[in-house]
Amino acid sequence: MVSHYLEAIYYMWSEGEPLRSARLADWLGVSRPTVTVALRRMGGYGMVRMNGRKEIELTPSGRRAAEAIVRRHRIMERWLTDGLGLDWVTADEEAARLEHAVSEVVERRLYEVLGKPSTCPHGNPIPGHSKALPNEHRLASMKPHAKATVSRVSEVAEREAPMLLTYLHERGLTPGREISVVEVDGVARTIRIRAGNRSVTLSHDTAAKLWVVPV
Question: Model-level pTM greater than 0.85?
Answer without folding.
Answer: yes
